[in-house]
C-alpha cells in the first residue's frame, strides 16, 4: 500500500522565508516521480523541471532518473547536488558488489544499502524511489528522509505526489506489464504536471527488465499513452502541456 | 652475531633472496602442529569436524574450541594456534554481522572467506606484526537469504597463514593434513547426503593413525542448506552413534591419540 505519510518538515534550502513546519515534507521537493512494479519489469518516470522554490524554472531538461544497478534505476526528488552525489554512491556500490561477489546485489540488498546511506545523515534532501528486477521479480521501494525503506507495488514522490498517486490508484493493477504500466505512469506524472507548478517540461522514463535499463525523454507525456486504454477505458487527462519543440524523443540510455 | 640467513627469519615483511617469507612458512608449521580439522561439502550442506586434544581427564572437553559458529549459515573449523583462531573467528563474526546490517542478507561463504583472508594477509606485510598461526576451513551456505529461506548452495573454503583463500569439495588442515587429504581424494564422491558426509569426515580424521575416538575426542558440526536449518553442533550421543556405526568408537576414558 502506498503511504504518503506526511512527516514534520525540517528547513528547506530552496525556500527563503519559509518557516519550519510550514508545510508537510510530502510536498516540499519540487518534482514528481512515480514507479510501478510490473509483471515483466518495472517503470520509473519523472518530470524534467528543476525550479527555485517551485516559482522559477531553472531547468527545463533535468534528468531525475539514473540507472544505478544492472537492472535497477532510481528516481530522485530533492536538492540537485545531493541527488547527484547520492546517485553516484549507489551506482558505485552496485558495481563494487558485483565485482567482488560475482553477481549484482538483489534489489532487497540494494534497497537496504540505499536506506542505510540515507540514514548516514549525508543526504538530508533526497527522496528516492528505487525500482528494479532480480531473480525474485520486480520491486519498487519508496524511501523517506529518515532512511525508511518500504517495498510497495507503486509509489510517487515529490511535490506532485498527491496528483500522481490519485491517478495511480485508478490505473494500477497487479497484472500490468511494462507496456501497460508506462501509459499509467505517464498519465500520473502528467496529472501532476497539470496542477503542480514545480513539475513540468515533459518526462523521463526508465523501463527496466532483466535485460537492463533503457531511459528515454519525452517532451509530451501523452506520447507515452496515446492509443493505450486507461483503466477506465478513457484517454486519461487532457494534455495542454507545452513542449520545447526540440528533441521529441531523446535516446539517452 | 648470527649469519645473514637468519636475518630473513626476523621480519614478516622481508623476503629471503629466493623469494620466500620464512615467518609465513613457520606459521604454516604451527598449523601443521595443531590437531586436524576437516570439511566435507555434500549435496545437503557442509560438514565440519575436528579432533580435540583433551590433555587431562580433569579438563572439560567442550572448552577445547575447534569448531565455531559464525552466523546462522556460516561456520569455521580451525587448526593451529587456538588463540589466533579465536581472534579470526571474532573478526569473521563481526564481518558477517556488518554485512547483514549493510545488505540485510546472509553473507556468502566466498565473500566472508576473502574478507578474513585479506585480514590475514595484512599480517604478512606489516612491520612488527606476526602472521596468524592458524588455518581455517570456512563452511556454509551461500545465498541463504536473510532468514534461511533463500536458494542456497553449500560452499567450503580454506584460508592459510599467507592469506590465500581456496575452495574445496573436501579439505583438511592441521596435523597429518597431507594423509587426510589423500584419504579424502580417494573416498570423496560428489552428491553425498549429510550423514554420509559426517561419516566421511570422521573416517578422514581417523585415517592417519587408524585412531578410535571417544565422543569427546571429536567435534562435528553441520551447516544445512535446507530452509531454516543452518549451523548445528552434533551432540555427544549423535557423535557416539556415528563413531559406533563406523567402528571408530574407542574407550570413553582413554584418549585414542
What structural keywords apply?
heterodimer, A: alpha+beta, Glutamine Phosphoribosylpyrophosphate, subunit 1, domain 1, five-stranded antiparallel sheet, 4 helices, 25% helix, globular, B: 257 residues, alpha+beta
Write up what this structure looks like.
Chain A has helices spanning 80-101, 107-119, 161-171, 178-195; strands spanning 32-38, 41-47, 50-52, 56-59, 65-69, 72-78, 126-134, 137-143, 149-152, 154-158, 203-209, 212-218, 249-251. Chain A has 4 helices and 13 strands. The relative contact order of chain A is 0.20. With 253 residues, chain A is α+β, with helices and mostly antiparallel strands. Chain A has a 6-stranded antiparallel β-sheet with strand order 10-1-2-11-12-13, covered by helices on one side. In chain A, 25% of the residues lie in helices and 30% in strands. In chain A, a hairpin with a 5-residue loop joins strand 8 and strand 9. Helix content of chain B is 35%, strand content 23%. Chain B has 7 helices and 10 strands. Chain B has helices at 4-10, 22-33, 82-103, 109-122, 177-187, 194-206, 236-245; strands at residues 37-41, 45-51, 67-71, 74-80, 134-142, 153-159, 165-167, 170-173, 218-224, 230-233. In chain B, the strands form 2 sheets. Chain B has a 5-stranded antiparallel β-sheet. In chain B, strands 3-4-5-6-7 form a 5-stranded antiparallel β-sheet. The A-B interface holds A 100-102, 105-106, 108-110, 112-113, 116, 135 and B 101-105, 108, 110-111, 114, 146, 151.
Amino acid at each position: 500500500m502506498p503511504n504518503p505519510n506526511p512527516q514534520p518538515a525540517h528547513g528547506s534550502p530552496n525556500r527563503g522565508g519559509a518557516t519550519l513546519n510550514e508545510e508537510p515534507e510530502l510536498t516540499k521537493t519540487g518534482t514528481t516521480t512515480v514507479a510501478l512494479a510490473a509483471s515483466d519489469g518495472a517503470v520509473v518516470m519523472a518530470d524534467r523541471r528543476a525550479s527555485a522554490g517551485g516559482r522559477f524554472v531553472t531547468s527545463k531538461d533535468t534528468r531525475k532518473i539514473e540507472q544505478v544497478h544492472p537492472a535497477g534505476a532510481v528516481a530522485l526528488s530533492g536538492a540537485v547536488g545531493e541527488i547527484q552525489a547520492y546517485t553516484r554512491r549507489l551506482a558505485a556500490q552496485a558495481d563494487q558488489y558485483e565485482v567482488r561477489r560475482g553477481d549484482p546485489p538483489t534489489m532487497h540488498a540494494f534497497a537496504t544499502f540505499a536506506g542505510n546511506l540515507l540514514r548516514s545523515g549525508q543526504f538530508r534532501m533526497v527522496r528516492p524511489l528505487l525500482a528494479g528486477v532480480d531473480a525474485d521479480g520486480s520491486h519498487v521501494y519508496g524511501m523517506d528522509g529518515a532512511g525508511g525503506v518500504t517495498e510497495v507495488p507503486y509509489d510517487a514522490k515529490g511535490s506532485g505526489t498527491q496528483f500522481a498517486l490519485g491517478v495511480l490508484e485508478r490505473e494500477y493493477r497487479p497484472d500490468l506489464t511494462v507496456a501497460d504500466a508506462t501509459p499509467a505512469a505517464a498519465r500520473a506524472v502528467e496529472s501532476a504536471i497539470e496542477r503542480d507548478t514545480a513539475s513540468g517540461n515533459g518526462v523521463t522514463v526508465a523501463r527496466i527488465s532483466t535485460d537492463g535499463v533503457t531511459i528515454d525523454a519525452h517532451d509530451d507525456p501523452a506520447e507515452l499513452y496515446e492509443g493505450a486504454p486507461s483503466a477506465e477505458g478513457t484517454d486519461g487527462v487532457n494534455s495542454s502541456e507545452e513542449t520545447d519543440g526540440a528533441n521529441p524523443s531523446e535516446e539517452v540510455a | 652475531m648470527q649469519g645473514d640467513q637468519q636475518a630473513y627469519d626476523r621480519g614478516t615483511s622481508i623476503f629471503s633472496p629466493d623469494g620466500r617469507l620464512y615467518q609465513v612458512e613457520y606459521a604454516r608449521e604451527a598449523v601443521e602442529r595443531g590437531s586436524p580439522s576437516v570439511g566435507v561439502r555434500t549435496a545437503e550442506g557442509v560438514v565440519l569436524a575436528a579432533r580435540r586434544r583433551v590433555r587431562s581427564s580433569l579438563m572439560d572437553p567442550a572448552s577445547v574450541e575447534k569448531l565455531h559458529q559464525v552466523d546462522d549459515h556460516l561456520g569455521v573449523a580451525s587448526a593451529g594456534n587456538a588463540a589466533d583462531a579465536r581472534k579470526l573467528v571474532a573478526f569473521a563474526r563481526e564481518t558477517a554481522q556488518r554485512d547483514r546490517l549493510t545488505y540485510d542478507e546472509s553473507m556468502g561463504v566466498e565473500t566472508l572467506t576473502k574478507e578474513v583472508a585479506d585480514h590475514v594477509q595484512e599480517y604478512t606485510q606489516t612491520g612488527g606484526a606476526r602472521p596468524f598461526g592458524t588455518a581455517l576451513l570456512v563452511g556454509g551456505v551461500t545465498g541463504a537469504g536473510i532468514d534461511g529461506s533463500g536458494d542456497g548452495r553449500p560452499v567450503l573454503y580454506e584460508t592459510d597463514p599467507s592469506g590465500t583463500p581456496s575452495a574445496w569439495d573436501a579439505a583438511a588442515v592441521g596435523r597429518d593434513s597431507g594423509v587426510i587429504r589423500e584419504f579424502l581424494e580417494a573416498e570423496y564422491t560428489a552428491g553425498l547426503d549429510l550423514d554420509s558426509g559426517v561419516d566421511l569426515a570422521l573416517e578422514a580424521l581417523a585415517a592417519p593413525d587408524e585412531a578410535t575416538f571417544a565422543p569427546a575426542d571429536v567435534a562435528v558440526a553441520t551447516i544445512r542448506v535446507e530452509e531454516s536449518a543452518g549451523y548445528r553442533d552434533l551432540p555427544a550421543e549423535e557423535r557416539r552413534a556415528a563413531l559406533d556405526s563406523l567402528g571408530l568408537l574407542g574407550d570413553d576414558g582413554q584418549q585414542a591419540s
